[in-house]
């Protein structure tokens, strides 16, 4: 069996294969509630063979949403629509994962395809438009297009920590198997970690140890609240791509501290601040997954422009990462995993991964028009 199709167990839960759908905001919720869009969008990845489907950044508090259209799990009414999605994923044999997040100073932005707040009054009512003043470690805006945030005091930090805990409990009620803490991409937890955004002079700012304090407090509290048998992951920006910013060496220290607190895997992304300068290329973040895996000694997930099944298999087989996550590649081809199996494990048995409603019919088609070797 290839690595991509090997199961992997974390604590009491086994992922059926190594392909994960990376969390992707859909900006399509009203009042943080999941709806039919989320069910179908996520459901098709489970039909497409992804072993783990991760729900987008889901806010632990209303003011922690990136936009007014983002999902939330800050109140009990938000559990049932997520439960419906989890039940569908489970019925297809997929692992249901949820990324929980607070957007910090990058909250209350416009919907990305609009780029600005240009909603008419009628659209505002239909879309449940809201905007608010974000909170952050320091009262410094992300850039001139973002609002100047309010700096959090210790009471504010305690409230957010508690929101993460309450959200983790709701995630358990919704039936999720895996929880991921979002501490990447210039959102709240990453804003504490990075000297680019953290200009505090109290015990949450200054030295690396101080900057890691709040994210680690959150991780520790969530670990206690989330079932001991359940995997807890963390997404990190392994580096800011800024000379004076957070670096891969910092990530290894942070990942080791997360490991001590019971985090089971590090999802290795990068960037999130405007000033970052880097060139994108296929697999550009894989070396970070390897550096963290080797340096901190815990499993990692590689993400970022992974699209080719053979190359993904090489990453896993070389021990550069334990899981591979696809974002845009999954949007483009929700059946990527089934197609990957035809490439990596060709033959009649490669049709058994498809849902039974589809596999036999696709095999019959391929008997007439043979599948190209690479597809
Ligand atoms: C539409 C879209 C929404 C995204 N939303 C999130 C998110 O909710 N949380 C997150 O950590 N990353 C988010 N990302 C980043 C992806 O999870 C992924 O890390 C990134 O797209 C790189 O992987 P790819 O090259 O396979 O797309 C998003 C990316 C896209 C394209």
Brief summary of the model shown:
By secondary structure, this protein is α/β, with parallel strands linked by helices. Helix content is 37%, strand content 14%.
Q: Care to describe what's here?
A:
The chain is an alpha/beta fold. Helix content is 37%, strand content 14%. The chain contains 12 helices and 12 strands. The chain has helices at residues 36-47, 79-91, 121-127, 154-174, 188-193, 208-225, 248-260, 286-296, 309-317, 328-332, 336-344, 356-368, and strands at residues 8-10, 13-15, 19-21, 52-59, 95-101, 135-136, 150-151, 178-183, 232-237, 265-269, 300-303, 323-326. The strands form 3 sheets. An 8-stranded parallel barrel has the order 3-4-5-8-9-10-11-12, surrounded by 7 helices. Helix 1 (36-47) links the parallel strand 3 (19-21) and strand 4. Helix 4 runs parallel beside helix 6 (208-225) and helix 6 runs parallel beside helix 7 (248-260). The radius of gyration is 20 Å and the shape is globular. The model has no long low-confidence stretch (mean pLDDT 97). It binds flavin mononucleotide. Residues 22-25, 56-57, 99, 182, 184-185, 235, 269, 303-306, 326-329 line the site of flavin mononucleotide.
């Amino acid at each position: 069996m290839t690595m991509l199709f090997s199961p992997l167990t974390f604590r009491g839960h086994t992922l059926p294969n190594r392909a994960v759908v990376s969390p992707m905001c859909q900006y399509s919720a009203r009042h943080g509630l999941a709806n039919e869009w989320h069910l179908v969008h996520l459901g098709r990845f489970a039909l497409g063979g992804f072993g783990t489907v991760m729900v987008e950044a889901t806010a632990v508090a209303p003011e922690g949403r990136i936009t007014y259209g983002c999902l939330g799990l800050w109140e009990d009414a938000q559990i049932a629509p997520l439960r419906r999605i989890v039940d569908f994923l489970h019925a297809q044999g997929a692992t249901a994962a949820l990324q929980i997040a607070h957007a910090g100073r990058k909250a209350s932005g416009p919907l990305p395809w609009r780029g600005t707040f240009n909603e008419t009054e009628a659209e505002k009512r239909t879309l449940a438009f809201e905007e608010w003043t974000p909170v952050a470690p320091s009262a410094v805006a992300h850039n001139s297009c973002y609002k100047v945030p309010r700096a959090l005091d210790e009471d504010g930090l305690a409230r957010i920590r508690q929101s993460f805990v309450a959200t983790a409990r709701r995630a358990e009620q919704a039936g999720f198997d895996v929880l991921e803490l979002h501490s990447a991409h210039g959102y709240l937890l990453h804003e504490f970690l990075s000297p680019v955004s953290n200009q505090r002079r109290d015990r949450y700012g200054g030295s690396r140890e101080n900057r890691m304090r709040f994210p680690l407090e959150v991780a520790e509290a969530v670990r206690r609240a989330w079932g001991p048998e359940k995997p807890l992951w963390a997404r990190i920006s392994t580096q800011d791509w800024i000379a004076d910013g957070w670096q891969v060496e910092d990530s290894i220290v942070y990942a080791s501290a997360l490991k001590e607190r019971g985090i089971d895997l590090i999802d290795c992304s990068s960037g999130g601040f405007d000033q970052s300068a880097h060139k994108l290329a296929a697999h550009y973040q894989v070396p970070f997954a390897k550096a963290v895996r080797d340096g901190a000694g815990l499993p990692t997930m590689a993400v970022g422009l992974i699209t080719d099944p053979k190359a993904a298999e090489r990453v896993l087989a070389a021990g550069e990462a334990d899981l591979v996550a696809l974002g845009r590649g999954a949007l483009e081809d929700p059946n990527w995993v089934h197609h990957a199996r035809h490439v990596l494990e060709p033959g009649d048995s490669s049709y058994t991964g498809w849902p039974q409603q589809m596999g036999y019919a696709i095999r019959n088609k391929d008997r007439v028009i043979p599948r190209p070797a690479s597809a």
